[in-house]
Design brief:
Helix content of chain A: under 10%
Oligomer: heterodimer
Radius of gyration of chain A: 13 Å
Helix content of chain B: under 10%
Distance between the termini of chain B: 37 Å
Structural class of chain A: mainly beta
Number of strands of chain B: 11
Number of helices of chain A: 0
Shape of chain B: globular
Order of helices and strands of chain A: EEEEEEEEEEE
Largest interface: A-B, 21 and 21 residues
Chain lengths: ~110, ~120
């Protein structure tokens, strides 16, 4: 089955700096890679996703890159703000829909 | 659009009792729903895949007789934790996939915090 590795497990940045979270996956059949933000006690919220036919996608301060050959994808947050502090999960899935999540990255943005 | 609700949001029960959790897609039809559990400071672990009108598919290590899943309509899936024990205490989250072949986007419910005493 799919195995998703996520690094780092914790990340602390100063407000205004960029944050990068990286994930690798094992199943070359995976074709959909979403990123979720989860605040304490809340549901995961989809913040951006990318499909295997695209190498990069950007939405304002958030961008995701995908390298299919190396089987890794990354989340980039620019101009970080304190409200970006949360746990971020990457996930990968093949056409069967079931998401395989990484272990999460706890991001802390300090003012 | 794409709202998923869960009920109840929190439940506390005694050991040995059964608890039913409902997951509803409010503004779309969900041919597939998923049930996850999440322990504190851990990732989401898939428990089972629920398809409308058919039996759920359980992940390895998840007891189907303990975690009963019913997906009787395109907008409702239920998870029943039978004979709950303290080790079943967790955050249970459902997600729903909007019908159609061109999207894989999963929409999550708000979760149910189960505490078994």
């Amino acid at each position: 089955g799919e195995n998703v590795e996520q690094h780092p497990s914790t990340l602390s940045v100063q407000e205004g700096d960029s944050a990068v979270i990286k994930c690798t996956y094992s199943d070359s059949a995976s074709n959909y890679f979403p990123w979720y933000k989860q605040e304490l006690g809340k549901r995961p919220q989809l913040i951006i996703d990318i499909r295997s036919n695209v190498g990069e996608k950007k939405d304002q301060r958030i961008a995701v890159t995908l390298n299919k050959t190396a089987k890794h994808f990354s989340l980039h947050i620019t101009e970080t703000q304190p409200e970006d502090s949360a746990v971020y999960f990457c996930a990968a899935t093949d056409s069967g829909y079931a998401l395989n999540f990484g272990k999460g990255t706890s991001l802390l943005v300090t003012p | 659009g794409a709202v998923v609700s869960q009920h109840p949001s929190r439940v506390i029960c005694k050991s040995g009792t059964s608890v039913k959790i409902e997951c509803r897609s409010l503004d779309f039809q969900a041919t597939t729903m998923f049930w996850y559990r999440q322990f504190p400071k851990k990732s989401l672990m898939l428990m089972a895949t629920s398809n409308e009108g058919s039996k759920a598919t359980y992940e390895q290590g998840v007891e189907k007789d303990k975690f009963l899943i019913n997906h009787a309509s395109l907008t409702l899936s239920t998870l029943t934790v039978t004979s709950a024990h303290p080790e079943d205490s967790s955050f249970y989250i459902c997600s729903a996939v909007r019908g159609g072949l061109s999207t894989d986007t999963q929409y999550f419910g708000p979760g149910t915090r189960l505490t078994v005493l």
